[in-house]
Amino acid sequence: MTPNQRGFVTLLKKEVMRFWAVLGQTVTAPVITALLYLLVFAQALSGRASAYDGISYTEFLVPGLIMMTVMQNAFANTSSSLIQSKVMGNLVFLQMAPLGPWEWFAAYVLAALVRCVLVASAMFIATLFFVPLPVHQPLAILAMFLLSAGSLAVVGLIAGIVSQKFDHIAAFTNFFINPLAFLSGVFYSVHALPPFWYTASHLNPFFYMIDGFRFGFFGHADVPILHSIAWSAGFFALASAVCMRMLITGYKMKR
Amino acid sequence: MTNSPSNALDIVGVRKSYGSLQALKGVEFSIPRGEFFGLLGPNGAGKSTLISIIAGLVQADVGQIAVLGHDTVGDFRHARRLLGVVPQELVFDPFFKVRDMLRIQAGYYGAGREVWPWIDEMLERLDLTSKANTSMRALSGGMKRRVLIAQALVHKPPVVILDEPTAGVDVELRRTLWQFMSDLHRQGQTVVLTTHYLEEAQEMCSRIAILDRGEVKALESTRQLLRRHPFRFLRVKLAGNAALPEALRELVASESDGSIELKLETGKHPIGSVFDALRDAGVAIEDVQTRDPDLEDIFVELTR
């Protein structure tokens, strides 16, 4: 292993150890929250017709809930790690280390993916007790998982770079992540929406992430799977380009 | 830029401004390999800005810095592997224990298990062995300071910068750190020290740069710097707390505990002339002491 590779692996390991040290907050809590959503919505709307033939509303709900939780946690992992290091001042240890922008990017994003794998696996296993999900196209599930979790991890990294205090991260979460996540068709099919909101939903990248992920389970979706992959990949590429530019120039990181 | 690998640090024409404030105004000097170098200056002189630029925390507007011939921007990986910086602030990562933190820090620099024995040795030398498995957040300020020093040295850098390592530490720890820094220097490491304890710099540094308002005001060996001050000091205690004759009042440097310190310019104010003036005024001397200027006097003179 070259020194650069070892530096990258160490940062990745450190980022995993960081969320692992508080697993109750980083994995267990979001899974419980998502299961509460499932219980409440499944009970309240159990009689509601599903968007897809032969699929109950509870079944319809589960992939969206998993993906929403994954996206929120991908964002939280990178953004909270970076802002904590900034506020505590210990970011200097990383900034003084011989690590390049690509190593920062890859280590933070991969650590977020590890957390998301744990969150998604725990949710998938837990929801089996409520409703067993079919798996129609595992590759589509994997692709949408990686693109979506990766995208939100990168957005979290951008938020961490731009922010100077916890309030800024909270603003990102409350005014950007949560509205887009809740308006992305987690709890409903966009076909049930009025024309304006139907069109607006198609401009929301989170909608494609959830719709594509759902397709992997049922083989049905609101838009073709290739559209979802293309939108998610495009969003990932755009966010990554912005993030890399910030890391290379030291935006908000170097005085 | 002439980067000489025989120099631990080459600093060439470094300028940095924050808005209208010019923090560094074209700072330029070199530090030869193996030197124990003091970087002194009052608060706001630009010391920390310069160190932050060397460490890669701040971007210079103009200028270049090389560590053992490696540019800190163009060849930052090499330069940073050769450099260890102890930051001034007591920063730490609360998620980790002391030994884990040091192993992580070594990993950032590409060092693996081969430095684990060195980590244990440092823990022992810095009296941290009993705290090796303690969370960083549970350590006292002094202990955190020791860990910061260990973190900077974990990858065995040949050039070490300590930014006020003894600020706010007790006497015992200060002595431990002095001993530790001396040992590092004896082992061939280049040590750059910034401190507000001028006796510390005078004792330990072979060469000193005094920075003031972003400019290098002096850059000489400690001995030359001490010699360049053309003054000496005469402390007199006058019998019966008598008043000093008017002719000597312009020489007063300080007054305390009933004694008066006079600042005498070499060649212009011979000590004998002071005694003559006192005798002519009929003032008796109760006690008298002389002293050569120390670094603090030079520092005050240069940064006035």
Automatic annotation (TrEMBL), chain A:
UniProt main location, coarse: membrane
Residue ranges occupied by any ABC transmembrane type-2 domain in the UniProt entry: 21-254
Bilayer-spanning residue ranges: 20-40, 60-83, 104-133, 139-162, 169-190, 225-248
Molecular function per GO: ABC-type transporter activity
Protein origin, superkingdom: Bacteria
Presence of keyword Cell membrane: yes
UniProt subcellular location: Cell inner membrane; Membrane
Family annotation (Pfam families): ABC2_membrane
Topology term for the membrane: Multi-pass membrane protein
Keywords carried by this UniProt record: Cell membrane, Membrane, Transmembrane, Transmembrane helix, Transport
Gene Ontology CC terms, in alphabetical order: ATP-binding cassette (ABC) transporter complex
UniProt keyword annotation of Transmembrane present: yes
Recorded family membership: Belongs to the ABC-2 integral membrane protein family.
The protein's name: Transport permease protein
TrEMBL record, chain B:
Domain ABC transporter stretches: 9-238
Signal peptide location: none
Keyword Nucleotide-binding assigned: yes
SUPFAM superfamilies: P-loop containing nucleoside triphosphate hydrolases (SSF52540)
A Pfam family this chain is assigned to: ABC_tran
Entry keyword set: ATP-binding, Nucleotide-binding, Transport
GO molecular function annotations of the record: ATP binding; ATP hydrolysis activity
Name of the featured protein: ABC-2 type transport system ATP-binding protein
Species this protein is from: Hydrocarboniphaga daqingensis
Phylogenetic lineage: Bacteria, Pseudomonadati, Pseudomonadota, Gammaproteobacteria, Nevskiales
